[in-house]
Specification:
The structure holds two protein chains of two kinds. Chain A is mostly helical. Chain A has helices at about 1-10, 15-35, 55-60, 65-100, 105-115, 115-120, 120-130, 140-145, 160-185, 190-195, 200-230, 235-240, 250-260, 265-295. Chain A is flat. Helices cover about 45% and strands about 15% of the residues of chain B. In chain B, a hairpin with a 3-residue loop joins strand 7 and strand 8.
Chain lengths: ~300, ~475
C-alpha cells in the first residue's frame, strides 16, 4: 500500500519535473558540453567540437586572475552581507517598534524604504557613479566638503571596492528590512512581555530573544542575498568596469570578460559551471543549517 | 496508450488534475510545434509576384546610440515607401549591441540582418564568416550612384571598411558602409592658453608642461590641467594608444607580417610613464573615468584640455551644456620628443569607424534588401540632411559634410586629422579583444600606481606572447 502511495505521489511530480527538465536541463547540458569541449572563439553550433575533458577547468584554475577575482568576490559578498544584515535588522526593529506604537511615519517609511529595491540596477549604477561618487561634482564629496573635510576618490584604487559594496548596501538592505520586519511581526508578544516583567534590558531582549527567534528568517534572507551576490554584475560593471586595475573585478566581471571581451567561450563555460556549483553547494549548506536550526 | 489516457484512467481527483495538466502541456507542445513548423516552412515573406526579390522583405536592424541614429529612425518611412521593404529598427546600448551581435550571428538565429559594427569587432566577425562582403553588391544593379556617392566618402571612411579576408592576406574586401569616422586630436581652452601665455604644443612634453602650468595656476579654482579617459575598458586603450603611437610605439615587430609583440619596448614604457604623469594634472577621481566624465569635465569647466575625440565639439560647443562654448581650439596630437611623422606607426591620430554590416547567414533576397537599407542609411542625401539639422556635428564621414561645415574649427581639425589618421587604431586581429583585455588591466594598474611602467610593459609583453603563441601567429 505504501509503495503504491509513493508511486502515485511521485507520478504527480512528472509534469512539473518535465517542465523543469525542459527549462533547466537542456541549457545546463549545453553548458557542460561547452565546458568539456573546445569551442575556440565561436558560439556557432555548426561543427563538431573536440572533446578536451577537464582542460578548460585546469586552464581556468591555473589563472592567477581567477584566484585574485575570487578574493575580490569574497570581500564583495562578505562586505555586503556583514553591512546589510545588522543595518537591515536595526531598521526592521525600529520599524516594528514604530508600527507597534502606531507612529504616523511608519507606513510611508515602509513604502519609501523599498524604493532602492525596485529601482533598475542600471539606474542605480549610473546614479551612484555620476551623482554620488563623482569626485568633483558628486553629492558625497559635496557633503564632506560642506562639513569642512576633503573629498574622497570614491571610485579610485583605495575606495572603489568599498564604494560598490556601499551601493549594494543601499540597494539591497531593504530586502533584509522587509523580510526581517515580516519575521518580527510574527513573533509572539508574550515572550517579550515576560522578558520585560523579568527586567530584561532592551539589548538583552534583542540578543537573547529577538535574534534567536529570527534566526530562520535571517538564514533565508542571507541565502537569497548570497545567491544574488554570486550572480551580480550590473552595478559593478557600470560603475567601475572591474577597475581601476583589477580592484573590483569579481568573478562575474571576469566571466563576462572571458565570454564577451576575450571570446574564450569554453573557459567561460567552465567558469559559469564552477560558479553554479559553488552557489548550489553554499545554498545546500545554508538550507541544511536552517533546517537543523528550525528543528 | 497515451500518457494522458494512462493518468485519466485511474479516476482519483489528484490523478484527474495531473491528467488535465498533462493535456494542457501536450496541447501546448503540439500547437507550438505546428506554429514553429509553419514559420519554418514559410521561410520568411514571399517576394511580390513580378516584383524585385527584395520587395516585401523585412530588414531587421540593430544599432546603438550614436550621432544621427534618432534622425535615421525618423526617416525610415521614406526608405520603406521607396523600396517596399519593412524595417524593424532596434536600438540597444553599445555593450549590449556587441553581445547581441555575437550571440545572434554565432547562433545563426537570423534575427539580425543589418547591424552597426565597429572597427574592432568587424575582424572577429569576418574571421567567423558571420558577415557578408559587400563588393558584389557594390558592383551590382542595386547601386544607386546618387545615394551611394562612393567618392564622397572621405578616404579614412573608405579605408576603415576594407579588411583582408585572412590575417596578413592581400585579398581585401569591403565589409560595410561607414556611418561615422572618429578622429583624435588635442582639444584645449583658448582663453586659458592665452592667460598663461602657452602655445599649442608640438610635443607631448610641451603638452605635459602646459598641463602642469594650468594645474598650478587654476586647480585651486577647480580647473585642472588635462582630462583623459581611464575606464578599464577599450576606452583606456583609446586614450593611452594616442600617446603610445605618438612616441613611436608599435604593437608588433612588423604588423601584420611579423606579429612578435614589442610591448616591452622603450616607447611602450615611455608611453605608460607619460600617461600616468598626465593624471597628476587631472581632476581628482580621474583614475577610472569614461568619455562621459571627460566631456562633463570639459563642459563644466573642470578640465582645460584633453587628447580625445574631436566629436566632443558637439557637446562642449553647445551653449546649453558648456560653460565656455566659444572657447575651444583644436590641434593635432603632439608627438614625442625627437619623433617625426615617419617614426610614428600609421600616424599619431587614429580614425575609428562604426559601419553597417550585413549578416552572412540570411537569404539572397534578404541580403539584397539589407544592402539597399545600408546604401540608403549611409547615403549622401541622408547625410546632407543630418548635417544640416546638426545631428552629425563633430563627425565627417563624407567630403560633402566637410564642405557644409567648413569654417567650423572642429571641421578643419577633423578633416586635417583624417589625413594623418591611422586606420590601425587597434590591430585588425581577431584576437585583439584578448590582447586588449590584458593591456587594459596593466595600463589601468599603472595609472593607479599598482604597477610601474616597466613592470606593466613586461607583463603585457608576456601576456601578448602567450596569446599569440597559442593561436600560432608566432613560434
Amino acid at each position: 500500500m505504501q509503495l503504491k502511495q509513493r508511486i502515485r505521489t511521485r507520478r504527480l511530480l512528472i509534469p512539473a519535473v518535465s517542465v523543469l527538465i525542459l527549462i533547466n536541463a537542456l541549457p545546463m547540458t549545453l553548458l557542460v558540453h561547452m565546458s568539456v569541449t573546445d569551442w575556440g572563439q565561436s558560439l556557432a553550433m555548426d561543427a563538431a567540437k573536440p572533446f578536451v575533458g577537464l582542460e578548460n577547468f585546469a586552464h581556468l584554475l591555473s589563472q592567477a586572475r581567477f584566484w585574485r577575482s575570487g578574493l575580490v568576490t569574497l570581500i564583495w559578498i562578505l562586505g555586503s552581507l556583514l553591512l546589510q544584515l545588522p543595518l537591515g535588522l536595526a531598521i526592521a526593529l525600529v520599524l516594528a517598534r514604530a508600527s507597534r506604537r502606531n507612529l504616523v511615519m511608519a507606513t510611508p517609511f515602509k513604502y519609501v524604504i523599498v524604493l532602492p529595491l525596485v529601482t533598475a540596477p542600471i539606474v542605480v549604477g549610473v546614479m551612484w557613479r555620476f551623482m554620488m561618487f563623482n569626485a568633483t561634482g558628486g553629492a558625497l564629496n559635496a557633503f564632506l566638503r560642506a562639513l569642512g573635510g576633503q573629498g574622497i576618490d570614491w571610485l579610485g584604487r583605495d575606495w572603489a571596492l568599498f564604494s560598490v559594496i556601499l551601493t549594494d548596501v543601499w540597494e539591497h538592505t531593504p530586502l533584509f528590512v522587509m523580510m526581517l520586519f515580516a519575521g518580527l511581526q510574527s513573533l509572539p508578544n508574550e515572550l517579550f512581555e515576560a522578558a520585560r516583567c523579568d527586567g530584561a534590558s532592551g539589548l538583552q531582549t534583542i540578543t537573547r530573544i529577538t535574534i534567536p527567534l529570527l534566526t530562520p528568517v535571517i538564514y533565508v534572507v542571507v541565502v537569497i542575498r548570497f545567491i544574488d551576490l554570486m550572480r551580480w554584475i550590473v552595478t559593478i560593471y557600470i560603475m567601475t568596469g572591474g577597475g581601476p586595475g583589477a580592484s573590483t573585478e569579481i568573478w562575474n566581471v571576469y566571466l563576462y570578460r572571458l565570454m564577451f571581451s576575450r571570446f574564450e567561450v569554453s573557459t567561460g563555460a567552465a567558469m559559469a559551471l564552477f560558479l553554479i556549483v559553488i552557489s548550489l553547494l553554499m545554498s545546500i549548506v545554508f538550507v541544511r543549517v536552517t533546517t537543523r536550526t528550525n528543528e | 496508450m497515451s500518457l494522458t489516457v494512462l493518468f485519466a484512467s485511474k479516476g482519483r481527483e489528484s490523478d484527474r488534475v495531473t491528467a488535465g495538466f498533462c493535456r494542457v502541456i501536450v496541447v501546448a507542445l503540439v500547437l507550438g510545434a505546428v506554429v514553429t513548423g509553419a514559420v519554418w516552412a514559410s521561410g520568411g515573406q514571399e517576394p511580390a509576384p513580378d516584383g524585385p526579390a527584395y520587395e516585401g522583405q523585412t530588414v531587421n536592424v540593430v544599432a546603438f546610440a550614436l550621432a544621427g541614429i534618432d534622425e535615421i529612425r525618423e526617416q525610415l518611412p521614406v526608405f520603406e515607401e521607396q523600396y517596399g521593404i519593412d524595417v524593424e529598427f532596434e536600438e540597444v546600448s553599445m555593450g549590449a549591441m556587441r553581445d547581441k551581435m555575437q550571440v545572434d550571428f554565432a547562433a545563426g538565429t537570423k534575427q539580425i540582418d543589418v547591424a552597426l559594427s565597429s572597427i574592432h569587432l568587424t575582424p572577429t566577425l569576418i574571421a567567423r564568416n558571420e558577415i557578408a562582403p559587400l563588393d558584389e553588391f557594390l558592383s551590382s544593379d542595386l547601386v544607386d550612384p546618387e545615394l551611394l556617392a562612393w567618392d564622397d566618402f572621405t578616404t579614412a571612411a573608405r579605408e576603415n571598411i576594407v579588411f583582408p579576408t585572412e590575417l596578413g592576406g592581400s585579398d581585401t574586401r569591403i565589409w560595410g558602409l561607414p556611418h561615422d569616422v572618429l578622429v583624435q586630436g588635442l582639444i584645449y581652452r583658448k582663453s586659458i592658453y592665452e592667460k598663461y601665455g602657452l602655445s599649442v604644443p608640438d610635443t607631448l612634453e610641451e603638452l605635459m608642461e602646459n598641463a602642469r602650468i594650468i594645474n598650478e595656476g587654476e586647480s585651486a579654482n577647480g580647473l585642472y590641467g588635462i582630462s583623459l579617459r581611464s575606464l578599464r575598458s577599450p576606452q583606456i586603450i583609446w586614450a593611452w594608444g594616442q600617446i603610445f603611437r605618438a612616441v613611436g610605439g608599435r604593437y608588433f615587430v612588423d604588423y601584420p607580417n611579423d606579429l612578435r609583440p614589442t610591448m616591452d619596448s622603450d616607447e611602450a614604457v615611455e608611453a605608460l610613464r607619460m600617461f600616468k604623469e598626465f593624471f597628476e594634472y587631472s581632476p581628482p577621481g580621474s583614475e577610472n573615468q569614461a568619455y562621459t566624465e571627460v566631456v562633463s569635465q570639459l563642459s563644466n569647466g573642470t578640465a582645460a584640455q584633453t587628447l580625445d575625440d574631436i566629436m566632443y565639439s558637439r557637446w562642449i560647443e553647445d551653449p546649453e551644456e558648456s560653460v565656455a562654448p566659444d572657447d575651444w581650439g583644436y590641434a593635432p596630437i603632439p608627438l614625442g620628443e625627437d619623433v617625426t611623422y615617419d617614426d610614428v606607426a600609421f600616424g599619431p591620430s587614429v580614425s575609428m569607424s562604426n559601419h553597417w554590416v550585413i549578416n552572412a547567414d540570411i537569404s539572397d533576397a534578404e541580403k539584397q534588401a539589407a544592402f539597399l537599407f545600408v546604401q540608403w542609411v549611409t547615403s549622401k542625401p541622408l547625410f546632407e540632411q543630418m548635417t544640416e539639422s546638426g545631428a552629425m556635428t563633430g563627425i565627417l564621414t563624407r567630403t560633402s559634410m566637410y564642405e557644409a561645415s567648413s569654417g567650423e574649427a572642429w571641421a578643419e581639425a577633423h578633416y586635417n586629422a583624417q589625413q594623418n589618421a591611422s586606420k590601425f587604431f587597434r590591430p585588425k586581429l581577431p584576437e585583439w579583444p584578448q590582447l586588449s583585455d590584458e593591456l587594459q588591466e596593466r595600463v589601468s594598474k599603472v595609472v593607479i600606481g599598482e604597477l610601474t611602467p616597466e613592470q606593466a610593459a613586461q607583463e603585457v609583453q608576456e601576456a601578448f606572447t602567450e596569446i599569440l603563441k597559442d593561436v600560432g601567429y608566432i613560434q
